[in-house]
Design a protein that fits this description.
CATH architecture of the largest domain: 3-Layer(aba) Sandwich
CATH superfamily of the largest domain: Type I PLP-dependent aspartate aminotransferase-like (Major domain)
Strand order of the largest sheet: 2-8-7-6-5-3-4
Order of helices and strands: HHEHHEHEHEHEHEEEHHHEEEEHEEEH
Shape: globular
Number of domains: 2
Largest sheet: 7 strands, mixed
CATH topology of the largest domain: Aspartate Aminotransferase, domain 2
Helix content: 40-55%
Bound molecules: pyridoxal-5'-phosphate
Number of helices: 13
Radius of gyration: 21 Å
Strand content: 15-25%
Structural class: alpha/beta
Oligomer: single chain
Amino acid sequence: MFLSEKARVISPSPTLAVDAKAKRMKREGYDVISFGAGEPDFDTPDYIKSAALSAIDRGFTKYTPVGGTKEIKNAVSDYFKKQIGISYEHDEITVSNGAKQCIFNALYCLIDDGDKVLIPSPYWVSYPEMVKLCGGIPVFVPTIEEGFMLKAETIEKIIDKQTKVLIINSPNNPCGCVYSKEDLQHIAELAVEKNLFVISDEIYGELIYDDAEHVSIASFDNMFERSLVVNGVSKSFAMTGWRIGFAAGPKELIKAMENLQSHTTSNPNSIAQSASAEALNVLTQKGDGVIKAMVDEFSKRRKYMVDRINSMKYLSSTVPLGAFYVFIDISETFGKQCNGSTIINSTDFAQLLLENYHVAVVPGVAFGADNYVRLSYATSMENIKRGLDRIDQFTLSLK
Ligand SMILES: Cc1ncc(COP(=O)(O)O)c(C=O)c1O
């Protein structure tokens, strides 16, 4: 076999089996309701599409600077100034093919073999794999006992001399929690004291509910030089397929990330850059009308979903304040049977729900939390109602 050691350490996605089965059942004609979506179910707004069409008409179809055009760097700079109160210069900003590439590039430029990277758990599936690909060691920081909140005291107990980077993700996928200003302040102080670099993945920063506030850890004292803020247009503007993400931080790191990108993918798509610049400029200059409409709709669905889940036998969930996921504790179903099969983990729960009631959810084991499943409410209210009716029947059938 020709596969490298590097390729061998990449784990297959644990969500794949359930996902593949859901797709197969759909093809076979079953009415499968899926709560697996990691992207808004809304269309990209028309004014953003028009900006892309105009870029094509203008012939803006050639290579651009590797880390993005002046136009998009201006737009990102204005956006961050408004959203998180930090002014970044152009050489402190870079643009990539999605937030995902920004995070990978950053890790590659920060980690040497054997360096440890702290990842709050439950976590987004790609963080540990990216760390391993870069030669680092993922170290998980538990948050479940703190209601999914990341606490400086917990981090402090885990840090050792090899620890170099901390990844934080607020609003959080999969938990939907939003870290408080106070907690972030303590984490920032610890990062300064222990000389940690922080990658702050703020991709869901626009999708917050009730009185939650999005605060960036980069905005605290002495954090500018030790943090990279990552965001993008995927989730905020329903633009997952356009593949534009951006990052801002110290210029040495940005330069290294751009050098790396220059030898891998080069610039992100020129047309998508133009469209994304328009998306950000309209938001900073005219306000968040489009996002607000989406957030209002998400919030309605979120409340409905949490109320229904918490009224069901064996299931419970906290109220998420960000992103578009509800993370459900299913541990009380363990040991119960459905049609003769016993549930002992989140994969069993998801498989049995899919096979018997044709509802697809993501098993929590994918996020390092086997007592949970994740439901996305980025799907229509009608689907949510029908899907939850079926989950209710499923839990009632357990013996
Ligand atoms: C926490 C988190 N970070 C980053 C990403 C990737 O975003 P992008 O589409 O910009 O690559 C996702 C997408 O699911 C995510 O959930």
